[in-house]
Amino acid sequence: MNDNFDIGIIGGGPAGYTYALHSSAQGKSVVLFEKDQIGGVCLNKGCIPTKSILHSSEIYKQTLNGEKFGVTAQNVTLDYSKVIERKNKTVETLRKGIELALKNAKVTVINAEAHIKNKNTIECNDGIYNCSKIVCATGSSPKVIKGLEFDHKFLLSSDDILKLEKLPQSILIVGSGAIGVEWARIFNNFDVETTVVELADHLLPLADAEVSKRLERIFKTEKIKFYTRTCVKAINNKKVTLSNGEVIEPEIVLVGVGRTPNITDKIDGVTYIGDVSGEIQLAHYAIKQAIEDIDGIKFERNLTPSVVYGTPEIAWIGKREQDLEPDTYKKSLVLLSAIGKAHCDGQTDGFIKILSQNGNIVGAHIVSNEASALIQQITIAIQNGISVYKLKEVCFPHPTYSEGVFDALFKLS
Ligand SMILES: Cc1cc2nc3c(=O)[nH]c(=O)nc-3n(C[C@H](O)[C@H](O)[C@H](O)COP(=O)(O)OP(=O)(O)OC[C@H]3O[C@@H](n4cnc5c(N)ncnc54)[C@H](O)[C@@H]3O)c2cc1C
User: Kind of pairing, strands 360-368 and 313-318?
Assistant: First the structure.
C-alpha cells in the first residue's frame, strides 16, 4: 500500500493529537499513528489518571477529618477498586472525546507502531505513507537508573503504579519532582506509610527554595517521611539501604526520577514536538509547541507554568528568588492565614509570593488551594507586560484566594 498525506504524525498524545486537529482545521490531509492508546501518557498514564486518583484520596481524607467542619462520618471505608474504576471511566470518557474530535476532523488514525524512513516517508505495518511533512510526537518513557531497574513487582515505574489492584501498606518513593510529590500525597491520603527520598538539597528541587521549604513543612505536618540529600544505596531482599545509613522495608518502591525521550536519532527535516523534543516535559508545553508550529502562534517557553497537585496546590511561573541577584528585585509574600477564603476552607498553610523588577512581575510562587488557577492570571500579566501598577487597578472578587495576589501587589511598593 502506498498513500499520500499532507501531514504524517507519529504519536497520539497531546502533542500529536493537537497537531492533527489544528492541521486538519487548516484543510490539510492528516494521518496519525498511535501504537497504544489515543491521548498518550498524559491521558492514559499521567496527568489525568493521577489527578483522578488524587481527588478520590482527598475525598477519603476529608471524610475522615470532617469533624472540624461539623461533619462526622462513621464507618468510612475505602474501596480502591472503585477508585480505579472511576479513574478508568474518566480516562475513557476523555479518550472517546479526542477520538471523536479526530474522526470529525477527518484525521486518518492508524492504531499501529510507525517508523520514519526519511523526512517524507513513514513505514507502518506493510504500508508506506508519503507525507509532505512529518511530525514526530512519540513522547517519553520512565527513566531507568542503575541499581533501580524496574522489575514491575517491587521496583515500579509511574506506569506500573497505576496497575496496582490494591493499596500497599507502605511505599518508598524515589524522587520528589511533581510525580513523586503527587504520588506521596495520594498514598499518604490513603493512610499508606509513605517515605520519599530525594538526592537534591530540598524536595521539589526545581521550585523556588521557599516553596520547597514550605512543602517540607507541610510533609512534616502530614507525616510524610522524607530524606533529602539522600539516595538509595542498595536493595537486598526488599530491604532498602539509604545513603544516610537508614534501612527501610517498604512493600513497594516507586522510582520517579524523570523521563527519557522516545527517540534514537533525529532526522533532518522532521519536526519533533512534545516530550520527545527534549525540552520541558509537560502536556501544556507539548500542546503549545504543536500550535506554534502549525498555526504560527508563538509562545514564550520560559513562561510555562508549573503545577504540582494536592492540598494545597503548588504553582509557579517565571524567575525563582534564587535566580535573581540580591538587591535587584522586590519581593512580597502574603500568608494564606491573612486570607478569608483560606480560613473558610480550613486551608491556611501556604503563601502567595510575587517577585518584581522595575515595576513588573518577574516571578510568582504559590502554595495555596487554587494555585493552578491563580498562576494563570499572573502568567497573563507577565507575558503581556502588565505592570504592578496596572494590576492594582484590577478588581479582585471577595472572598477568594486571588485577593492574596491583590494584597501581594500592594506589598511590593
Ligand atoms: C505520572 C505523570 C503525571 C503527569 N502529570 C502531568 C500534569 O499534571 N501536567 C502536565 O502538564 N504534564 C504531566 N505529565 C507529563 C505529560 O504526561 C507529558 O508531558 C505529555 O504526555 C507529553 O505529551 P506528548 O504528546 O509529547 O507524548 P505522550 O503523551 O507520551 O504521547 C506519545 C504517544 O506516542 C505513542 N508512540 C510512541 N512511539 C510510537 C510509534 N513508533 N508509533 C506509534 N505511536 C508511538 C505512544 O504510545 C504515546 O501514546 C505527567 C506525566 C506522568 C508520567
Answer: antiparallel
pLDDT digits (tens, 9 = 90+) for 154-173: 999 999 999 999 999 999 99
Q: In the predicted model, is pLDDT for residue 342 greater than 70?
A: yes
Residues 283 and 308 reside in one and the same domain? no
Q: Which atom of ligand 1 is nearest to the CA of 141?
A: 30
Same domain membership, residue 250 and residue 189? yes
Mutate to test the pocket of ligand 1, among 17, 41, 161 (most ligand atoms within 8 A of CB): 41
Q: Is the pLDDT of residue 1 over 80?
A: no
Ligand 1 pocket mutation, candidates 44, 47, 173, 287, criterion most atoms within 8 A of CB? 47
pLDDT at 141: 98
| Pair 24, 92 in one domain | yes
Q: Which domain holds residue 382?
A: 303-411
Amino acid at 270: V
- What is the rounded CA–CA span in Å between residue 336 and residue 123? 55
| Atom from ligand 1 closest to the CA of residue 15 | 25
Q: Ligand 1 centroid vs 302 CA: distance in angstroms?
A: 21
What are the backbone angles phi and psi of residue 170, rounded to the nearest 5°?
-150, 155
Predicted TM-score (pTM) of the model is: 0.97
Neighbours of 332 (CB within 10 A): 17
Residue 2: pLDDT band with limits 50, 70, 90 = low
What are the C-alpha distances in Å from 248 to residues 152, 219, 239, 261? 19, 19, 6, 32
The ligand 1 site (C-beta within 6 Å) comprises 10-16, 33-36, 40-42, 45-47, 50, 113-114, 137-140, 158, 179, 262, 274-276, 281-284, 286
Query: Do 20 and 131 fall within a single domain?
Result: yes
- Can you give the CATH number for the domain in which 202 is found? 3.50.50.60
Q: Are residues 162 and 16 in the same domain?
A: no
Q: What is the pLDDT of residue 371?
A: 98
| Overall domain count for the chain | 3
